[in-house]
Amino acid sequence: MIIETPLEAPLRIDRRSGLPLHAQIDALLRDLIRQPKYAGGSLLPDEVSLARQLGVSRSTLRAGMQKLIYEGLVERRQGHGTRVAKPPLQSGVAEWHSLTGEMRSQGVEVRNYALAVGFVDPDEEVQNALQLKNDRPVLRVRRLRGWLDERIVLTVSWMHPRLGIGKDRDFNVPLYDVIEAASGVKPVRSLEDITACLADDELATALDVRSGSALLVRKRTTLDGNDEPVEYNVNWYRSDIHSLRMDLRRG
């Protein structure tokens, strides 16, 4: 069931204005979505109602809304209506925290939508990241995570065998808490590579996006106080909901 937020005041087109209709619609809708009641991502009134109130055709209304969609201020889904987009939540790169800790600091609780744990043979990328000298199986934790009823990030983590962590641990709690409690090793440093990719069919299905959608990719190797590898992980984020923020100082 779709529940739309009603308008408190009617929207008015000025027929005597020299501004094109689509430009006026753009300005009116920008004012509308700034209202506090839309801050949480509420649905806009349906196209028929908006077009009738403005006295324009639906095609003219869509033309006026197109720039808002392009800028990511509103999002339209077939069968779900048009919704004001929620501001993307951010992870920082000036300091390093677990995802759960980062989101909790912003008042958001992370949940696991899917969890798979088991031992696997590491590929070359994992071997290099963890500085492994043999093909000894490593513990892999695969988690589909999100918040605010959205699946946001697919995270795959590989633990260094020296930690001695078994697959019977509770991996619904923050991963670095598990590592420290199980092995006594505390990750204190993180090496990160941030890139982008297009979602293949598997990633698109997991993250509930279209195949070919842009994803943010964050690869992280965590190290202990002796600069020994602890864990390697790869994270695929939905770029329409999550962003990375850098706080840099000029040297």
Account of the protein in words:
- By secondary structure, the chain is an alpha+beta fold.
- It folds into 2 domains: 21-84, Winged helix-like DNA-binding domain superfamily/Winged helix DNA-binding domain (Arc Repressor Mutant, subunit A), CATH 1.10.10.10; 89-245, Chorismate lyase (3-Layer(aba) Sandwich).
- 25% of the residues lie in helices and 30% in strands.
- It has 7 helices and 10 strands.
- It has helices spanning 21-33, 47-54, 58-70, 99-104, 124-130, 175-183, 201-207, and strands spanning 74-77, 81-84, 89-92, 111-120, 138-147, 150-159, 189-198, 214-223, 229-238, 242-245.
- The protein has a 6-stranded antiparallel β-sheet with strand order 4-5-6-9-8-7.
- A hairpin with a 3-residue loop joins strand 1 (74-77) and strand 2.
- Helix 1 (21-33) crosses helix 3 (58-70) and helix 2 (47-54) crosses helix 3.
- The protein is elongated.
Q: What is the topological layout?
A:
Blueprint lengths: L20 H13 L13 H8 L3 H13 L3 E4 L3 E4 L4 E4 L6 H6 L6 E10 L3 H7 L7 E10 L2 E10 L15 H9 L5 E10 L2 H7 L6 E10 L5 E10 L3 E4 L6
Parallel strand pairs: 3-10
Antiparallel strand pairs: 1-2, 4-5, 5-6, 6-9, 7-8, 8-9
Key attributes of the depicted protein:
Arc Repressor Mutant, subunit A, two-stranded antiparallel sheet, disordered N terminus, alpha+beta, 251 residues, 6-stranded antiparallel sheet, 2 domains, Chorismate lyase, single chain, 7 helices, 30% strand, elongated
